[in-house]
Write a structure and sequence with these properties.
Distance between the termini: 60 Å
Mean pLDDT: 84
Number of helices: 9
Low-confidence stretches: 215-220
Order of helices and strands: HHHHHEEHHHH
Structural class: mainly alpha
Largest sheet: 2 strands, antiparallel
Strand content: under 5%
Shape: elongated
Helix content: 55-70%
Number of strands: 2
Length: 220
């Protein structure tokens, strides 16, 4: 009989600490409630489950191998994107893969347009409005930036923000009438400017101080 501790240890290792002891207890409880131990074609069922487990273990080992290669590549490139809160080796590699050679972009605005987070102006005769770019841009890069923006404004169970300055900026935008989605896109645009500068100059991310006055002219 597998104990809660043993199962919890197994789950934590293979899920990278995403499965807790509570999940182990739930699994064992369900197994205990299942009074029918042997089912029709049980041998085939067992073989199928064991095959799935072997595949999961192989995939985990392959992911570790690939992450090691990615870490070596990032070290050689020296972009230091992992210094941004919430950016792992996988996320940094995804950014580099989608952005490519940073020299292709003459400015952060060019990169923003490529990523699909730059607003599009529509109008004539001196009158118009900016609209979100929903159709153009690299959707893969857009998705990575969207995920990263959520990471920036994340608040843990203790009420602590992962990136206090970004969270303050997000709340500032909300206070100015932006919807949560619009405020999140503003975070994505800021991330593009930060990532562009970091890749261009090969510098590490430095957490800025939170200013009391989040005036548009100072940080947008």
């Amino acid at each position: 009989m597998v104990t809660e501790e043993k199962l919890a240890e197994f789950l934590r290792f293979h899920s990278r600490n995403t499965c807790s002891t509570k999940r182990a207890v739930e699994i064992l409880t369900l197994v205990e409630k299942d009074t029918i131990r042997e089912r029709e074609y049980q041998y085939a069922r067992n073989e199928a489950i064991q095959s799935i487990v072997r595949n999961i273990r192989f995939d985990n080992e392959e992911m570790k191998r690939i992450e090691k290669i990615e870490a070596e590549m990032l070290k050689e490139l020296n972009y230091q994107l992992e210094t941004i809160p919430g950016v792992s080796t996988v996320t940094a590699s995804a950014l580099v893969a989608q952005i490519g050679d940073i020299k292709r972009y003459k400015s952060a605005d060019k990169l923003a347009r490529f990523a699909g987070v730059a607003p599009i102006y529509q109008g004539s005769a001196g009158k118009g409005k900016n609209y979100q770019n929903k159709s153009l841009g690299n959707r893969e890069l857009y998705n990575v930036l969207y995920f990263l923006a959520i990471q920036q404004i994340y608040i843990d169970k203790k009420g602590k923000a992962r990136n206090p300055e970004m969270r303050a900026y997000f709340e500032y935008k909300i206070s100015k009438g932006k919807t949560k989605i619009q405020a999140l896109i503003c975070i994505m645009r800021r991330l593009v400017r930060i990532i562009y500068a970091m890749m261009k100059c090969k510098t590490a991310y430095e957490m800025p101080e939170i200013k009391e006055d989040f005036a548009e002219k100072k940080i947008s």
